[in-house]
């Protein structure tokens, strides 16, 4: 399609390495993708400037920092006009417990991914914040019992 970014095999290998080894030095990345350090640095800078590489960060283990309960909450709004959607979105942005929020198709409007300390913390979040938010008609919560696979990297092999 027109307008889609074009990546060569080296770009894809470089992006895969950065996703898996974000703390690698430029020299290490260059060796892993068979480029000179200067060529590697130019490619990384180009990918950063184009917004392909959106940032760098550490993945934390939630349970090790005291966030032992993960939930997914589906939310249905009473109204779907721009004002109601904006009010809800603004509320979500204020809630630290919500680590992701997606607008959905189907019978529910939003899917929230939530991390909290425990069931009591979730109950307070639900009663004090989510159910008090203007325009929320219904919620449906599911708790994560075990994570089989979690997001670690985008599937770059689909782009080849």
Written overview of the protein:
It contains five helices and four strands; from the N terminus they run H-H-H-E-H-E-E-H-E. By secondary structure, the protein is of the alpha+beta class. Strand 2 and strand 3 form a beta hairpin. The longest helix has 13 residues.
Helix/strand layout:
Elements: H1 9-20, H2 26-32, H3 37-49, E1 69-77, H4 82-94, E2 98-103, E3 110-116, H5 119-130, E4 136-143
Antiparallel strand pairs: 1-3, 1-4, 2-3
Helix pairs in contact: 2-3
**Regions with little confidence, pLDDT below 50 for 5+ residues:** none
> Average pLDDT across residues?
94
Question: Strand portion, in percent?
Answer: 15-25%
- Structural class designation: alpha+beta
The number of helical elements comes to: 5
Numbering strands along the chain, what is their spatial order in the largest sheet? 2-3-1-4
Question: Count of DSSP E strands?
Answer: 4
Task: Please state the overall shape, judged from the principal axes of the Cα atoms.
Answer: elongated
Summarize, please.
By secondary structure, the protein is of the alpha+beta class. It has helices at residues 9-20, 26-32, 37-49, 82-94, 119-130; strands spanning 69-77, 98-103, 110-116, 136-143. A 4-stranded antiparallel beta sheet has the order 2-3-1-4.
């Amino acid at each position: 399609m027109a307008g889609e970014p074009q990546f060569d095999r080296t770009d894809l290998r470089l992006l895969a390495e950065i996703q898996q080894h974000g703390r690698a030095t430029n020299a290490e990345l260059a060796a892993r993708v068979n480029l000179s350090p200067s060529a590697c640095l130019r490619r990384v800078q180009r990918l950063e400037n184009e917004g392909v590489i959106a940032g760098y960060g550490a993945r934390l283990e939630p349970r090790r920092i005291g966030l032992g309960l993960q939930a997914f909450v589906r939310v249905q709004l009473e109204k779907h006009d721009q004002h109601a959607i904006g009010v809800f979105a603004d509320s979500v942005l204020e809630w630290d417990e919500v680590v992701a929020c997606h607008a959905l198709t189907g019978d529910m409007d939003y899917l929230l991914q939530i991390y909290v300390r425990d069931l009591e913390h979730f109950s307070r979040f639900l009663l004090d914040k989510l159910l008090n938010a203007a325009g929320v008609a219904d919620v449906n919560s599911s708790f994560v019992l075990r994570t089989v696979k979690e997001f670690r990297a985008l599937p770059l092999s689909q782009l080849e």
